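Re: your question from the hallway

Yes, I did run it. Sequences:
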Amino acid sequence: MSRTLIRGGLVVTASDELHADVLIEDGRIAALAAHGTTAAESWTADRTVDATDRYVLPGGVDAHTHMEMPFGGTTSSDTFETGTRAAAWGGTTTIVDFAIQPKGGSLREGLDAWHEKAEGRCSVDYGFHMIMSDVNASSLRQMDALIEAGVSSFKLFTAYPGVFYSDDGQILRAMQRAAGNGGLIMMHAENGLAIDVLVEQALARGERDPRHHGEVRHALLEAEATHRVVRLAQVAGAPVYVVHVSAREAVAELARARDEGLPVFGETCPQYLFLSTDNLAEPGFEGAKYVCSTPLRPREHQAALWRGLRTDDLQVVSTDHCPFCFKGQKDMGVGDFSKIPNGMPGVEHRMDLLHQAVVDGHLTRRRWIDIACAAPARMFGLYPRKGTLAPGADADVVIYDPHAEQVISAETHHMNVDYSAYEGKRITGRVETVLSRGVPVIESGAYVGRAGHGVYLPRGLCQYA
Ligand code: URP
Ligand code: ZN
Ligand code: ZN
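Structure:
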């Protein structure tokens, strides 16, 4: 039996902060005991980690990533190998990525293809959601088997006509199926048909720069689609989780539905909390670095997102990590913003950016751990194995130095992408050590992990619905 002891730190979970030592046995948390107690003093271990003046945190759970995803005429630049290594550097020890049903194909085919990409390559543990790009009688039936295979959440889109778009009837049918089988429907909520009209009109007027991406994807078209999917879910009697919420009007729709007692959930992402349309308007073609959908919003929207995170109208912060290199990928859209591949890098910086939010007074420490670890684990059927530090949980542990100073840069990050969306941003706090199931992955500023250490996580049902 292997035993590791983490001594002297402040353990922070979504529910507690305690000065406690943590005992790990064979990859799981065996016990926690207050410093200096007889129990803690009596523990012996093969290895002791000194966490004095450090936080001891559950590993981050990033429930929205796109590794090596074919999209927008290219493929996102992080593989499962590079992307999960970068995740580990940033204190994220679980990702949930999106497998894609091929058009005309089955959900199982999509899942098999994503297993093939990920197996033997990940540094941290991983699960899958399923993007349903072809909702029909057969794929609706297949949802039940996917849940059996541990894929209990299904993303549908009111955006991207001709690519991932589903009409209201298809969405309603998928929600009805989920109401019966316990699945969770995740919605990309933007009115894609209306956006395509505005794109065409903008291009006809000669509006071709990246900033127009934000203008045509109007906040009201996010709010309208959010309202629609919430009401479709209500009619179906199903819960719904709205991904990458960026507009304050969309937050208001979620808040109203939750006040009515509906099982409606929302996720936002660091880019919406820290970046804005000012970035999309950076000179030349620089704004392309920030093209993602839903788009960045004017800075004024950020207050509603922070408030939503504090009031629990938004429950989760994920990254929607979908990196495309500035040179060779984003530049496919020079002279036509609609051809810029949609997506931004971020899997490495979520825990740090949210710690900065604690330092800046937007969040408490426990809320940081809730939205970044515990809530995504609960939302996607991984709790308490992931998302907390409690006896029996996987020993996914981050030793975090809350006083270290760092500057984010593409020069030093580990994601396979040639720019950083947060270039030059100063952060207080830094990941020092990361354990995945008790095994060191990051130690004293070095990667000591292994591609293939990460295992597939079959997930249970949403634990909130
Ligand atoms: O721009 C984004 N968000 N790209 C990834 C695909 C999606 O819609 O999540
Ligand atoms: Zn989306
Ligand atoms: Zn996404």
